[in-house]
Amino acid sequence: MTQLSNGCRLCPRQCGADRAGGTPGYCGVAEPGIYAARAALHLWEEPCISGETGSGAVFFSGCPLRCVYCQNYSIARAQVGKPISVERLAEIFLELQQQKAANINLVTPTHYTPQIIEAVTLARTKGLSIPIVYNCGGYESVETLRSLEGIVDIYLTDFKYMQSEPAERYSRAADYPEVARAALAEMVRQQPEARYDDSGMMTSGVIVRHLLLPGHVQNAKAVVKYVYETYGDRVWLSLMNQYTPLPQVTDFPEINRKVTRHEYDRLIRYALSLGVENAFIQEGGTAAESFIPAFDYQGL
């Protein structure tokens, strides 16, 4: 927990907040404690993550990115969150395993990394055996990721931007492209090959998600080009068209609409033209608030 007691440096913001003393970091969260909004089986991830029984998703409160268009806006801004202890988090992992979860899915976990390591280690001594999924926004510190080696089995990471302009406008993170490249390299170093069990569920590996934003096909193409040309089919791409324009984007009129079928088709055709084979795509009109779970403290 030294990164908190000496000023938090867990994420690339390097805000240095005295979270241990009760001062919130950029993520919106102070110490002590872990804050979460939901822990339940989740069926809306990629097929090799959710499967038929669901992924055991723990939605944490707060976020180092806080993108203006975030579909989990209320928890990303730390507007909701119930405090839980490391011991309780370990119990939650075991309860989700008992509910036949395919894995433990840590959603927006970056700023709780030390506590998560403690909780996973504790839960494993008590029988936790399913994979750990680190479900993050891609804006990660390499040092923090290194601390997760041996803890995380699957990295399910966003790669939002290869252009600094939208990264700054929508996420206040102009350095996102270079940070995400370095973070992804570390994730692939730790999990260089996708592996699966007999039922086709992923047990280790890296999945890179990209949510297509309205009017940003070129940025999306640049992400796909970089990831595929750098890692080939060693990592899976997940290309999503589910962007939902929520009320908080009214000040950003250029993204205050859904992605068109033409925009998404352009991205998919481009990925195929590069030779991408390992990719998940979404069919039909998926932009809907039904993708947003109820943050009602279920399972906590």
From TrEMBL:
Pfam families: Radical_SAM. It comes from the Bacteria. The keyword Protein biosynthesis does not apply. The keyword Iron-sulfur applies. CDD domains: Radical_SAM (cd01335). Gene3D superfamilies: Aldolase class I. Residues 59-182 form the Radical SAM core domain. Keywords: Iron, Iron-sulfur, Metal-binding, S-adenosyl-L-methionine. PANTHER family: FORMATE LYASE ACTIVATING ENZYME, PUTATIVE (AFU_ORTHOLOGUE AFUA_2G15630)-RELATED. This is Radical SAM protein. It comes from Hydrogenoanaerobacterium saccharovorans. The lineage of its organism: Bacteria, Bacillati, Bacillota, Clostridia, Eubacteriales.
